[in-house]
Amino acid sequence: MSSNTERKTIITSENRSLILSAGTTGFRTWEAALHLGTFLSTTSAGKSLIGNKRVLELGAGTGFLSFLCAKHLGAESVVVTDREPALIEQIDDCIGKNGLNKKQIQAGIWEWGMPLQVPFLFEEHGRVEFDIAVGADLIYDSDIVPLLVSTIRDLFDNYSVKEFIIAATVRNEDTFHTFLEACARNALAVEQIPFQSPPSEAQTGFFHSTSIPIRTYRVLQSQGQDQGQTSSSS
Ligand SMILES: C[S@@+](CC[C@H](N)C(=O)[O-])C[C@H]1O[C@@H](n2cnc3c(N)ncnc32)[C@H](O)[C@@H]1O
């Protein structure tokens, strides 16, 4: 590595060995977040999704993706959310450690199905608006899928979101189909983004296992005659 190479860092507070603690799986950064981070930071399609955009993250866990967007991908602003207050405290604590300030990134509690609890800094035209929303590893339990999908619908209807990018570790195809069907019922179109992380031995950053398939999807509002149809290339 050249001595001029700038090392890009992201500081998160996490415990890599924790799967579930205090009712949340969010105390570690999951493979799907590292996969989506690789897509957003290494492809021109990914970078153009975030640059100069107002970004929202749902179910952020450690906030890794939000920090990536705010610190390295040129987002105009980022709101990072999760339902777990302890995670939001940790993320808040890492904002300064990453050299960021609260004009660039703010953390707030958002339990799906409940009102968004974020500070008012990014409010425009009397409401909070975003251009794009992102999420990683949120489709792991059929029981929470309806709430997740109605929240995604809410983002389009009430927060001006134009697209939702989600990376999903496909542990269970049935759970995944529940997600696709719920999207169709809510007039949301789902398109697979043809991106694969490099195999472990070829990775140069955001190192993660690729042993379980991870897929990346773009969720959009269905248009006109397409209302209610779901497309997926997998
Ligand atoms: C598997 S973790 C993924 C965390 C992070 N996105 C990542 O990929 O590293 C799922 C996250 O979703 C959050 N979550 C689960 N159900 C939620 C709900 N109903 N409302 C808001 N967040 C929720 C959890 O607290 C947890 O942080």
Characterization of the model:
InterPro entries: Methyltransf_16, SAM-dependent_MTases_sf. GO terms for molecular function: S-adenosylmethionine-dependent methyltransferase activity. It holds the Pfam family Methyltransf_16. By secondary structure, the protein is an alpha/beta fold. The protein has one domain: 3-Layer(aba) Sandwich (Rossmann fold), CATH 3.40.50. The protein contains six helices and nine strands; from the N terminus they run ααβαβαββββαβαββ. It has helices at 31-42, 44-50, 64-71, 85-97, 145-158, 173-185, and strands at 54-57, 77-82, 105-109, 123-124, 127-128, 132-136, 163-169, 188-193, 214-221. It has a seven-stranded mixed β-sheet, with helices on both faces. Strand 2 (77-82), helix 4 and strand 3 (105-109) form a beta-alpha-beta unit. It is globular and about 50 Å long. 41% of the residues are buried. Mean pLDDT is 87; it is low at 225-234. Residues 24-26, 29-30, 32-33, 59-61, 82-84, 87, 110-112, 136-138, 140, 144, 147 line the site of S-adenosylmethionine. The site of S-adenosylmethionine has 23 residues, from helix 1.
What's a quick, concise take on this entry?
With 234 residues, the chain is α/β, with parallel strands linked by helices.
Major sheet size, sense and barrel closure: 7 strands, mixed
Number of individual domains: 1
Radius of gyration: 17 Å
Q: Do you know the CATH topology?
A: Rossmann fold
The proportion of residues in beta strands is 15-25%
CATH superfamily: Vaccinia Virus protein VP39
| Lateral strand order in the biggest sheet | 3-2-1-6-7-9-8
- Count of strand segments: 9
Which hetero ligands occur in this complex? Answer: S-adenosylmethionine
Alpha plus pi helix count: 6
The backbone outline, from C-alpha atoms, is globular
User: Which stretches are poorly predicted, pLDDT < 50 over at least 5 residues?
Assistant: 225-234
User: What's the oligomerization state?
Assistant: single chain
Q: What is the straight-line distance between the termini?
A: 38 Å
Q: Which structural class best describes the helix and strand composition?
A: alpha/beta
**Top-tier CATH class:** Alpha Beta
CATH architecture: 3-Layer(aba) Sandwich
Mean pLDDT: 87
